[in-house]
Amino acid sequence: MVSLAQRPLTSAETIGYGAIGLAAFLALWSALSLTGLVPRQFLPGPLEVVSRMVHLVGSPFAGATLPQHLASSFLRFAYGFALGAVVGIPLGLLMGWFRWLDDIVTPIFDGLRFIAPIAWVPFAALWFGTGVGGPILIIFAGAFPPCLINAYRGARFVSRPLIEAAQMLGTPSRRVITEVLLPASLPSIVAGLRVSAGLGWQSLIGAELIVASTGVGFMMVQAQLNISTATVMAGMLAIGLVGLLIDVGLRQVEGAVRRRRGLQ
pTM of the full predicted structure? Predict the structure, then answer.
C-alpha cells in the first residue's frame, strides 16, 4: 500500500494544498496589520495593497501608470534576456564541441559568473548613467550564465553514436552543431532559459532601484521616498505576478519540448 507521502498528488490535491498555504499567509498578514502589531503605515493589509494596485493601473505615480512602468521594465528585461540567450546558447554549444574554445573561455567565465548581477550596478551607472544600457547590462549579467551552462551541458551529454554517425557521413562541424548538437541539447537549453529568465527579472528590479528613471523598481523607490508602503507593496505584487507569468510560459515551452523529445 502506497502512503500519502509517497504517492503523487492529484491536481485537485495540489490546488487544495496551495490554497491552504495562501490562505494561511494572507491570514497572518492581515492579523499583523489589523491588530496593530506592525503599524499599518509600514504594513498595510492585503485589501489595501490590492486596492492601491488597482488605483495605480489608471492613475500615474512617478510619471506613469503601473502598466506603463511594467512595460518599461519588461522591455529592458526582453533586451537583456535576449542578449544573454543570443550570446550564451551559441557559445555554450561551441564550447561543448570545440575543446580548445572550452579551455580558453572557461577560466574567464568561471571568474565572472560568481559576481552577483547587482554588483555590476556601480559599473553600469558609470558607463550608462540612468539610460537603458545600464539595466540591460545588469540583466545580461544575470541571464547569460544559465544560458551558457545549460547549452554547454546539453552539448557535452549528447549521445556519442549520433555524433559519430554524422562524422562518418562526412558532415562538417558547422552542420553537426546546428543539426545534431542543437536539437539534442534543446531540453537542456530551454531549462536554462527558465533559470535565466528568473535571474534576469530579479536583476532588472535590482537595477531599476538604482540606475533607472522609469520602471517598477523606480516607482517603488519614489514610493519609499514618499512613505507610501502600499505603493511599494503593490509594485512588489506586480513584479511577482509578471515573473510568475514568464515562468509559466517558459514551463509550457519546456514541457512541449520534452514531450516532443519523448522525455516525459
Answer: 0.84
